[in-house]
Amino acid sequence: MHHTREIPKEGWADYLSLLSNLERDHWVRIETESADFGDQPLAGRLPLVEIGLEPKGSDRGAVEIIVGRPGGEVTHRILKPDHIYADESESGELECLDIEDADHVKTLIYFEPARAGEEPSIGAPS
């Protein structure tokens, strides 16, 4: 049984910072869903480098997600996030982070288990 909870907006920066530290180098897959474009894959099965909230400047409040390996990173920004939901397993492990923006576009970050013999290390060759 899954449990979905909304992360309060005032707690986004702390939550994303903690998540970035705890889940760094873990495998993730990123997709977007929208009424206009349907489901779109953005990044397939890459190690998480960082996820955070932009604290200042013209992108203040945007969520930035970086995945990949040195020299091959993929960055995705959600400029006007409205809601962040954490979908957790019965044991409390994060399975998906759902970030919804002001235009009703969802960015879904799936946290995937490592496969046998697979080491999700950023320094590993592609």
From TrEMBL:
InterPro entries (UniProt xref): DUF5335
Pfam annotation, one family: DUF5335
Superkingdom in the source lineage: Bacteria
Protein name listed in UniProt: Uncharacterized protein
Record organism: Corallococcus macrosporus DSM 14697
